[in-house]
Amino acid sequence: MIRPALLVLTLLIATPALAQTPAPQTPKPLFDAQITTDGVTVLETGKPAFFFRTRAAAGTEAGRLDYLHPLYAPDGTVLTEDGAASYPQQRGAFWAWPRILVDGKPVADSWNLKGIAFTVRDTHFGPGPGGSAELVLKSDWLLTGGTEVVYAADEVTTVRIYPLKKGARRIEFDTTIISRLDGLSLAGNDDERGFGGFALRLTNASALAFASDGRPVKPGFGSLQAGTSMGFAWPGQPGLGSWGVGLACKVDGRPLRYWLLRREASVQNCVFPGRAPAVLSKGRALHLQATIVITPR
Question: So which residues are the signal peptide here (predicted)?
């Protein structure tokens, strides 16, 4: 007769696979997000790709949020600046306008953060098309320059990041702005520069080279017409010289071709709409798009 203890030992030896098979593990997602009260860090394979600020830092203007910084190259190199001494109002990658008007009268300046504040009221991170991940943010525009706060517009921004392709990183901004006021309009600076629209404060701008449609572009004081995309590179710069940045912008599906470029400590700008105001019809969406591609060189 087989003793009970011997029987149990015999069964364990006979069925080792059942006793030792590890539990299945869920594969880690390619993209993830760390959400805090100040903003969202989006990670690819555990490494930060960008941070999007959703609350103004202590001691800064109420409107100093709703922008992306830092923006990282795939090797971790930081490509943007925020609040530099030259122009402290400039901040990473952002849409903004020096003149926000109501009935033709300037009431706010989101470029220099005067008379306006933003409130991010909803944040969502999840999968997107083509293997991408999406950060969706819903916010309100509040005009603060008058005797009372005025609710001016709704904004919904989707920041979409795609998996690396041949070592290149692609990030898309997709923004809709819906006016809640009659007579709301947006305009650039009222001179030949006309700056306003999508701005990108790249680091070490004094070392930048510019190209569009395969040809070098020389920056000037005013805005200039070029192709529908602009390339930026830091030839010969340690770390930065390994990367190039491409930028393209659209408004209501129309590519933008005017650029304000600076080989100095300032932003690079897809100019929209220029000096003449763009009127936002109440309740109708204005659709803004910007695409940044970071490529190895």
Answer: 1-19
